[in-house]
Amino acid sequence: xxxxxxxITAISLLALAGVLFxxxxxxxxxxxxxxxxxxxxxxxxxxxxxxxxxxxAPVSKGESGDDIYFIIVLYVIMLxxxxxxxxxxxxxxxxxxRKQWDFGLFLAPVFVSPIIFIPLLTAFQQQNSDSPKMMLxxxxxQNGFLWxxxxxxxxxxxxxxxxxxx
Length: 166
What we know:
Helices cover about 75% and strands about 0% of the residues. With about 170 residues, it is mostly helical. The chain folds into two domains: about 1-60; about 65-165, no CATH class.
């Protein structure tokens, strides 16, 4: 796993851990705290063992530092797409029917961002580097904007199949 993917995954996992532990603390649930800690540690071990998470990746001499900045910009643009989706959903509803602003719903895309970003980055790295950068930025924004549709579609399919969602 490259260093930039390590950082993106680590920051997302830390944010998830912080929110889960804060929620368990507010609820006074030690059982939930230990359950979440165990699951997160198991995820970390899985990522470390099979994907080299938090290990330094060898850097080739031909690799330029500009790629890292490009990847960071793509990630930020994808996150902006996720924020734009939240704003679009909020402001496309009549003011009288809007729900109260929820920080958790606003922050939720950050937790799924590695799931959306890693395939996007892989597709871009396999593509010819002569592609117009603006097109790549627009695709990153689009993936961020449409992330919720993908998960809502999966959730509806699970419900239609009769399975339960935890």
